[in-house]
Amino acid sequence: MLGSGKLSAYAAANAYLNALAEDRERRGLAGVSIGWGVWGEAGMALQGDMLEHMQRHGLVPLVPEEAMVAFGRALSVRGSVLAADFDWNRFAQTFTLPRESPLLSELPEVRQALAAAGSERDAVVAEATLHEELAGLGPAERRDALLHLVRTVAAELLGYGEPGDIEPSQAFREMGVDSLAAVEVRNVLGERTGLRLPSTLVFDHPTSQAVAAHLHRELFGDEGDEGAVPASAEEARVRKFLASASFDQLRSLGLVELLSEAAEETAQPAEDGDVGDMDADDLVRFVLGGDEA
């Protein structure tokens, strides 16, 4: 029902059972399909790290005795029902991270949880002091301080020993950041900076370096951007490969046509004739921007 991660095959089987129960109901036959939440002492959720994963996302394990009471009540209805327990303060924020959810929007507990989260962020904005602390520093020092802040928060929330264990250009997804961790990082950075940050912060700005640059722009505008964050290590690796790859390598990877199209769309005209006349080296240099390759 909720589209939980790591349970796609299980969800497909449940969808069939839901449809079967509803079909039997339409035909006047007995049948009920119960969508169970997390059982605390038995079930698939106890395998591996599944239980911890679900708890972190706001699914509360059901006490077996209470679950059996719910089972008895479910037998008195027809069709599909949900029997689960939620930590709404945690679940509502993560479940609605990508977009608002019509499934939950009418639940009073969800509306209260989301309203409370918004009120907390509003209070944070009024109490922020970091801007004042950084105002006396130069642009480069401010960026360094913000980068250290982001790495510190990420290390605290993701279980890293020290901020230095997180590379500035390391992608958050590589560190295991999921929707819940994204909300937590956003919340803590919001508290420490006083900014109203989006829930998608670490997805829109996927490295500590990128988040720090975003925070700097939000706090101080474009001031000092001439010393902007350097290109990521990933970009450097891609540029190095493109500059050194043979034409056959590019063609085998399906990149020749893409590079040709990109070059044709570039505003700068080719200096040595049409793009179609370029060899592989000239083509790559042209796409990368002159002599950068």
From TrEMBL:
This is KR domain-containing protein. Keywords: Phosphopantetheine, Phosphoprotein, Repeat, Transferase. Gene3D superfamilies: ACP-like (1.10.1200.10), NAD(P)-binding Rossmann-like Domain (3.40.50.720). It comes from the Bacteria. Residues 144-219 form the Carrier domain. The keyword Cell wall biogenesis/degradation does not apply. SMART domains: PKS_PP, PKS_PP_betabranch. One of its GO terms (molecular function) is phosphopantetheine binding. It comes from Amycolatopsis eburnea. GO terms for biological process: fatty acid biosynthetic process. InterPro entries: ACP-like_sf (IPR036736), NAD(P)-bd_dom_sf (IPR036291), PKS_KR (IPR013968), PKS_NRPS_Biosynth_Enz (IPR050091), PKS_PP-bd (IPR020806), PP-bd_ACP (IPR009081).
